[in-house]
Amino acid sequence: MAAPELLSDEGYRADGRRPAELRKVRARMGVFAQADGSAYIEQGNTKALAVVYGPHEMRGSRSKALPDRALVNCQYSMATFSTGERRRRPHGDRQAGELALHLKQTFEAAILTHLYPRSQIDIYVQILQADGGNYCACVNAATLAVMDAGIPMRDYVCACSAGLAEDTPLADRSPEEAAGGPRLVLALLPASGQIALLQLSARLHQERLEAALEAAGQACRALHAVLDRVVRDRLREVTALLGD
Amino acid sequence: MLTSRMFLKRTRAGAVVKVVREHYLRDDIPCGAAACRLCPPRPAGPGLGLQAQPSGAASSLCPGPHYLLPDTNLLLHQIDILEDPVIKNVIVLQTVLQEVRNRSAPVYKRIRDVIANPEKHFYSFTNEHHRETYIQQEQGETSNDRNDRAIRVAVKWYNEHLKEIEDEEKIQVIFLTNDRTNKEKALEEGITAYTCEEYIKSLIANPDLVDRLACVSDEGKEIESGKIIFPEHIPLSKLQQGIKSGIYLQGTYRASRDNYLEATVWVHGDAEENKEIIIQGLKHLNRAVHEDIVAVELLAKDEWVAPSSVVLQDEGQNEDDIANEEEKENILKTSVNKDMLRPTGKVVGIIKRNWRPFCGMLSKSQIKEARRHLFTPADRRIPRIRIETRQADTLEGQRIIVAIDGWPRNSRYPNGHFVKNLGTAGDKETETEVLLLEHDVPHQPFSQGVLSFLPKMPWSITEQDMKYREDLRNLCVCSVDPPGCTDIDDALHCRELENGNIEVGVHIADVSHFIRPGNALDEESAKRGTTVYLCEKRIDMVPELLSSNLCSLRSNVDRLAFSCIWEMNHKAEILKTRFTKSIINSKASLTYAEAQMRIDSATMNDDITTSLRRLNKLAKILKKKRIDNGALTLSSPEVRFHMDSETHDPIDLQTKELKETNSMVEEFMLLANVSVAQKIYDEFPEFALLRKHPAPPPSNYDILVKAAKSKNLEVKTDSAKALAESLDKAESPAFPYLNTLLRILTTRCMMQAVYFCSGMDNDFHHYGLASPIYTHFTSPIRRYADIIVHRLLAVAVGADSTYPELTDKHKLADMCKNLNYRHKMAQYAQRASVAFHTQLFFKSKGVVNEDAYILFVRKNAVVVLIPKYGLEGTVFFEEKGKPTPKLDYNNEVPSLTVEDTTLHVFDKVKVNIMLDASNIQHQKIRMVLVEPKILGSDVPANLPTEISSKNEPEKKKKKLQK
């Protein structure tokens, strides 16, 4: 049996997208009333929920408080029903810990933490359905949730993955495409072009890095346009409510 | 629009999981018709798309303009027809392409090439992602049925879509299928559908295409004719289950060259026992063809057999003569020793066919006006193929190509169809073409795309080239090669340093400077893998401009080189090694003989001669060291033809002579290869391209040990060193040629040396050279492996940069696989070429008697070697239509007693050699024993060479093997 073809000669990927096209994105802000901010996002079949509390006073040990800025606390989890096979994931999951740490780093770079010294911002994300690009969906959902909470940020943080089919970079990899080859994950602040996080798994030749990075960057900017529309729609909705 | 595909999959652990995949449907996929303005413009893709005014062959069935749309099976079986230039404007659906891809990689490659060809106007339509042609699998519908329906939906859509185009002439889409139910369904739905046969026969101007139709008969038809000969093949799903549970074994089927009723299956995997399974008898072979991947069931132990030593050829002109076969099968079942029995099995199913087009000749049916004929492939391991043709008269005596279509259970031979005519058999050009095709040697002239990457002439060395390069033009460099060599890829120098040490340099043509990674030139060379040397022709790996000019290190011109320079002391111990890209200017290109003459001459004392003498001295020390380490000196008879300069017919034939200088050059090349191998491995432990030579399993030496024992000699085979030493000692004063014979036999016991990627293997040892690490660096003009090694080394010394494929060990491993394959094929092609020229030689020479030695003893024949010509041949003792002499084969010694004469291995005999042209396809060198004389044989012992001119003895009808 031949290995599945990632990109046909006609220029279509296995799921019918062209190399630079994203999966379908749907998002909503303010899905929970009790939290300070919340958002839900679907990227293809990956579904993620993000909830933000804060900024508020330090809970638990006060000694962790930072004198000059807010502490960003992130938690990541996957629903037991999120994968094809039902599996319980205890909190101590190594992968979850790593992802939470990455999220923390990403948002420390994006949130204007110096505005809230000695306080704490909690970001909780959960994957409801996993279908590739979990980290990216979490970052995008969390961005919307932080905005929903009204916490000032430098810019949106948009994250997207990219892979390679021979020489052609593929944006927003589907799980089929994730089977082999290098993967690049980029979290970008689109307005300034600053990179909040760049992760590269598996070996990738230097010459191809640029192309893959460019593809991921393009995808992030495309995502930014979508998220921006979601935020503006939400704002219009809320102001219309207030306006009455 | 979005939909999702859902399917169930079984994981490796055996659990069943539901997999959901997104499936995007688009509305921007163009239909590919040039006249269409409804679709978005066609993006740059392969091929040119469909013509607005289809210009295919005119058909009487559908006179209007039309596009063709084949289904999967039609494409798989009739690819030969579709490739014909007459067939144009074909729509290939994605559904079809995907099915083809899963079922046959070669056909997929071919259809991809056709789609990419702008002249053919094939268009691949991505129907699975088109909003209006995608369909979902219905409840209870098999995926085959779904795909058939998807194809029909696409045809319908096309017809409606093309109607909407504002054009005076409506273009029709014609559905081609050979499946009866599919065609009926299509007609019901109002689609114009034909079978391939109907359509091709309707083509007005091209009746000859009909011959190239594959004859895939419907299942129903088969029952009519004849009884069933073969057991049924077990379906794939059951085979896989069986293989998993160990009932069946999966392996590669290798037919025997000598006996058409026997084959071996090499079982895949690492299992120690049952590695090699013997299959005997027509029914057990069960329609497997050489190189197929098959599933085998082992027989019970009491049915096991030993590999037969009988030579049998399929000669039955009368097809389906089964009774006869059974009789022949009985010949195989002679009583044998218990310990000779090997695992025996039968083929129960085919996992993957590996059919390719075969070269060969037509054996015309004896019935006049018959359309069915048998085709005899040139490769003896391939069964004969039945084809249907109306041009048998023109094809007779021609070399043709035929493809197999299928092998029904009731047919003694597989069915096939005619593909191409190569030319008259026996012609030198045709025969060369045949042997190149049979050995899969890419030999087309280089395409324009490839040639465009050559440097522009006149070429000179620029400032840019001087960067990272050392100027070594002042050194006294010279090259030593065989006479007439135009692709000189190595040169040497040697000088004394001030500190008393000696500096030795090996300079290799810097081919990687001209062939840059990734371009068409590089890809073509990588595909060719090696230059193939035939007797009168060279199939270059790189274009001539490079091989014979810019890269060739000719004398008195500046050339780019890659140099490996050692500082050695007078004991030939390496003190320092360095590698650098350089510029050299060779002072002399010598032949081996010239170099030898200079070394031996007492009067010459110029720079070149002194450095040659120094090199020669060092080489001798190096060689001694190597042999002390256990390197083997093996021997194989090599022949060289003296060609007539005008007709290129061989005039004389002699074995190659080896001079001291041959070994001098060889020694330094080995040293350079070892040094480079070490360097690139140190630098890139994961993706160095190396060469290894595995130690042969002890059982390989059985023949050698037995043969030596019969001459009261002992050959130790526990290690390479022991072997080398015992071979050195194996001398017999009365029989000086014995040692060479032993070495020839030893060569036959060896394994093949192979390229590999260091990250994928952990055994690097080179057995023959007794070196822990080895690679190929010294012949980049004729071997692609050396180019890769050059690139790696260039990166290691900082003269060049890497590129993605170079640092990908999987890519490198794939490349090694191709290189190994090409090397093997090139060797076979070379041997075949020598054999062909030997025949030409004996054709002009007539019949001769020569001294020969027996190399192997078989059950009904002996294999002899004629040292004078380096020629090997088989002497048979059975003849058709004559009483078989009493044969007594003793496996222990081994020896063969014919009537009263006993023949042993290494016996000196005299044989009568002549060309047997009774079968024009397999012209053979026929050998008959003259001395010792065997009762009942009718060959005169003293046959003067002159009388026996060409025609008379050849008339004897004998089927003998070369």
TrEMBL record, chain A:
Q: Which GO terms describe its molecular function?
A: RNA binding
Q: What biological process terms from GO does the record include?
A: rRNA processing
Which Gene3D superfamilies does this entry report, sorted A to Z?
GHMP Kinase, N-terminal domain (3.30.230.70)
Domain Exoribonuclease phosphorolytic positions: 21-152, 155-218
| UniProt keyword list | Acetylation, Cytoplasm, Exosome, Nucleus, RNA-binding, rRNA processing
Q: Name one GO cellular component term.
A: nucleoplasm
Q: Where in the cell is it found?
A: Cytoplasm; Nucleus, Nucleolus; Nucleus, Nucleoplasm
- Which CDD domains has this protein been placed in? RNase_PH_RRP41
Q: Does the keyword Amino-acid biosynthesis apply?
A: no
Please, which domain of life does this record's source organism belong to?
Eukaryota
* Main location per the UniProt record: cytoplasm
Q: Subunit structure, briefly?
A: Component of the RNA exosome core complex (Exo-9), composed of EXOSC1, EXOSC2, EXOSC3, EXOSC4, EXOSC5, EXOSC6, EXOSC7, EXOSC8 and EXOSC9; within the complex interacts with EXOSC2, EXOSC7 and EXOSC9. The catalytically inactive RNA exosome core complex (Exo-9) associates with the catalytic subunit EXOSC10/RRP6. Exo-9 may associate with DIS3 to form the nucleolar exosome complex, or DIS3L to form the cytoplasmic exosome complex.
| Protein family membership | Belongs to the RNase PH family.
Q: What is this protein called?
A: Exosome complex component RRP41
What organism is recorded for this protein? Grus japonensis (Japanese crane)
Give the lineage.
Eukaryota, Metazoa, Chordata, Craniata, Vertebrata
From TrEMBL, chain B:
- Name the CDD domains for this protein: PIN_Rrp44-like (cd09862)
Show the InterPro entries listed in the entry: Dis3_CSD2, NA-bd_OB-fold, PIN-like_dom_sf, PIN_dom, RNase_II/R, RNase_II/R_CS, RNR_Ribonuclease, Rrp44_CSD1
Keywords carried by this UniProt record: Acetylation, Cytoplasm, Endonuclease, Exonuclease, Exosome, Hydrolase, Magnesium, Manganese, Nuclease, Nucleus, Phosphoprotein, RNA-binding, rRNA processing
Q: Which residues form the RNB domain?
A: 469-799
Q: Which Pfam families match?
A: OB_Dis3, PIN_4, RNB, Rrp44_CSD1, Rrp44_S1
Q: Which residues form the PIN domain?
A: 66-184
The alphabetized list of GO BP terms reads: CUT catabolic process; nuclear-transcribed mRNA catabolic process; rRNA catabolic process; rRNA processing
Q: Which cofactor does it need?
A: Mn(2+); Mg(2+)
A Gene Ontology cellular-component term: nuclear exosome (RNase complex)
Localization terms from the record: Cytoplasm; Nucleus, Nucleolus; Nucleus, Nucleoplasm
Q: Which GO terms describe its molecular function?
A: 3'-5'-RNA exonuclease activity; endonuclease activity; RNA binding
Does Magnesium show up as a keyword for this record?
yes
User: In which family does this protein belong, per the annotation?
Assistant: Belongs to the RNR ribonuclease family.
* Quaternary organization: Component of the RNA exosome complex; within the complex interacts with EXOSC4, EXOSC7 and EXOSC9 of the exosome core complex (Exo-9). The catalytically inactive RNA exosome core complex (Exo-9) associates with the catalytic subunit EXOSC10/RRP6. Exo-9 may associate with DIS3 to form the nucleolar exosome complex, or DIS3L to form the cytoplasmic exosome complex. Exo-9 is formed by a hexameric base ring consisting of the heterodimers EXOSC4-EXOSC9, EXOSC5-EXOSC8 and EXOSC6-EXOSC7, and a cap ring consisting of EXOSC1, EXOSC2 and EXOSC3; DIS3 associates with the base ring of Exo-9.
Q: What is this protein called?
A: Exosome complex exonuclease RRP44
Say which species the protein is native to.
Grus japonensis (Japanese crane)
Phylogenetic classification of the source organism: Eukaryota, Metazoa, Chordata, Craniata, Vertebrata
